[in-house]
Write a structure and sequence with these properties.
Layout (H helix, E strand, L loop, with lengths): L11 E2 L7 E4 L8 E4 L2 E4 L9 E3 L8 E4 L2 E6 L8 E2 L4 E2 L26 E6 L5 E2 L3 E6 L5 H14 L1 H5 L6 E3 L10 H16 L3 E8 L7 H7 L8 E5 L6 H16 L5 E4 L4 E6 L10 H15 L2 E4 L9 H5 L5 H19 L11 H5 L5 H8 L8 E5 L10 E4 L5 H10 L4 E6 L11 E5 L2 H6 L6 E2 L2 H5 L1 H16 L5 H4 L15
Parallel strand pairs: 12-13, 12-14, 14-15, 17-18, 17-21, 18-20, 19-20, 21-22, 22-23
Antiparallel strand pairs: 1-2, 2-5, 3-4, 5-8, 6-7, 7-9, 10-11, 10-16
């Protein structure tokens, strides 16, 4: 449950009235008496910023609540004022579950009302783009460096057009896959690349192949949605004499076509936005993720599409998400996806709870349940209306749940392949990396925002000082700016990359 409007406690925060822990908003020292949850708690240990301390007695085996949800079980007795972390709290997650049946919650389609307007590109298939770019995608890793050479040369040739805003750039997105793959592994690579080729931000796409790879160009083109194929050109490097000259001619053709596009006023409902968190800390679930959740609610209510992914990072909080399914079919598809991901771990002999990361733990997150309870807040309270396979496109207004692991690069690339034209990336630890579409980095705490301004686009800790209404309005204004063409810091730094989910054997 998100924090209430305007609540700003200088020392600690109890997120939900049912919680047995509070979060330190500053470093606290043993012996201090802290006012929290309507009581005075004397601390028995030093508590680092973002970490938890108990505000009531827990016996060994008791469930510990945060966000109003269980985040694990006490392994020993925990007294009020004790630090609560890996030394006394453990996950209760196991394997697959039989989720509670769908309760028949009625889905009311959104009523699209007048709201914020952004300046975007309306494509021929009716979808909207935040950028007008040329993308070069290699079908196989063997021509990845060739794709980069083609892109650099094209950027130089078309420097004036880029400077004058006729196009927003020419980019190559390389990867090591496309050959020595079999079955679903090869299919996943092909689906991901096809989804990227269909992204509206790519006004034109050049697919460069080698010629002898498993991921043949004809099969790759066939996997691209029909409405997006007109903007695609292909080149088999083994089939021409000078592949650089041939690629340059095709890119120039795409640039000429793309240069006719103009930004125009578009409603919020035209946005498709990816929701992502990485390098989370104890503040992520208090500031940044709830901030995204409230925007997600606004976007879904307008008829837009927010996309949630990182399936392993909803383990432990999935029932609350499933309860928001629009209908029984969506519920069943989402439940099957979660259990399929758990089986993916179990079949490798690995626990489903092998998370959070060392950085998460250092930031105050103890168990996967706690990480998940904070992470799902990115999706707000929007109705879950669709479930997407890896590489599948999002079309249904409302919240979409996308198949992908939690890895930052893999899941952010999957969001772009699903059609997201912005990725909203919350972080408590920070990362410089950006992805194919504009990646808006949102800091959960002020120290990160001030210490890494060249990584961070928005400081979500403003929620604590300014309250929800002011911070939410500033965030929406910032997003409208990024959607309308203002570069994110990752774009300005040239931080753009993809990563493909590799599964199965390598021949």
């Amino acid at each position: 449950m998100p924090i209430e409007t305007g609540i700003h406690l200088p020392d600690a925060l109890q997120v939900h009235a049912a919680d047995g822990v509070a979060v330190a908003l500053r470093p606290l020292s043993a012996g201090e008496t802290i006012a929290v949850g309507g009581q005075q708690i004397m601390l028995r240990h030093d508590i680092a910023q973002g970490h938890k301390f108990a505000i009531r007695l827990h016996r060994a085996g008791d469930r510990v609540l945060k966000y109003g949800l269980p985040i694990g079980e006490a392994t020993v007795a925990i007294a009020a004022g004790d630090h609560v972390h890996t030394h006394n709290l453990a996950t209760a997650l196991a394997g697959e579950l039989a989720y509670e049946a769908h309760q028949g919650r009625q889905h009311v389609p959104p009523t699209v009302a007048e709201g914020p307007v952004w300046q975007g590109y309306l494509r021929a298939d009716g979808r909207a783009a935040t950028r007008n770019e040329i993308w070069i995608l290699p079908s196989v890793g063997c021509v990845g460096l060739t794709a980069e050479q083609v892109a650099r040369a094209a950027e130089a040739r078309h420097a004036d057009g880029i400077a004058n805003g006729r196009i927003d750039g020419v980019f190559a997105f390389t990867h090591p896959h496309g050959c020595s793959q079999l079955g679903d592994d090869l299919g996943g690579t092909r689906a991901l690349l096809a989804g990227l080729a269909a992204n509206p931000n790519a006004a034109g796409v050049l697919l460069i192949g080698l010629g002898c790879e498993s991921n043949q160009l004809d099969d790759l083109v066939a996997a691209i949605p029909p409405g997006a194929r007109a903007k695609v050109r292909t080149l088999s490097s083994q089939g021409v004499g000078d592949e650089m000259a041939a690629a340059a001619a095709l890119v120039d053709e795409l640039v000429t076509e793309a240069s006719t596009a103009q930004r125009e006023p578009l409603p919020l409902s035209a946005l498709v936005v990816g929701l992502k968190c990485g390098g989370s800390d104890g503040f992520s679930g208090l500031t940044a993720n709830p901030l995204l959740g409230r925007f997600c609610d606004t976007l879904a209510a307008s008829g837009g599409i927010p996309i949630l992914t990182e399936i392993p990072e909803i383990f432990g909080a999935e029932q609350a998400l499933l309860d928001r399914a629009a209908d029984a079919a969506t519920f069943e598809a989402a439940a099957a996806l979660v259990n399929r991901f758990k089986r993916y771990y179990l079949d490798q002999g690995l626990p489903v709870s092998e998370n959070p990361s060392p950085g998460n733990i250092a930031g105050g997150i103890t168990t996967l349940e706690e990480k998940s309870a904070g992470a799902v807040q990115k999706a707000g309270h929007a109705m879950l209306t669709s479930v997407l396979d890896y590489g599948e496109q999002a079309h249904t207004p409302g919240l979409a749940l996308l198949e992908s692991p939690g890895n930052d690069a893999v899941s952010s690339t999957a969001l772009a392949a699903a059609g997201a034209t912005l990725v909203l990336f919350t972080t408590g630890r920070g990362t410089p990396l950006g992805f194919p579409v504009p990646t808006v980095k949102i800091a959960s705490n002020r120290g990160l925002a001030q210490g890494k301004p060249h990584w961070i686009d928005f400081d979500a800790s403003r929620v604590l000082d300014e309250g929800r209404q002011t911070a939410d309005a500033a965030f929406l204004d910032a997003l409208i700016g990024f959607a309308s063409g203002r570069k994110t810091v990752a774009e300005s730094a040239g931080q753009r990359a993809i990563s493909i989910w590799k599964r199965g054997v390598t021949l």
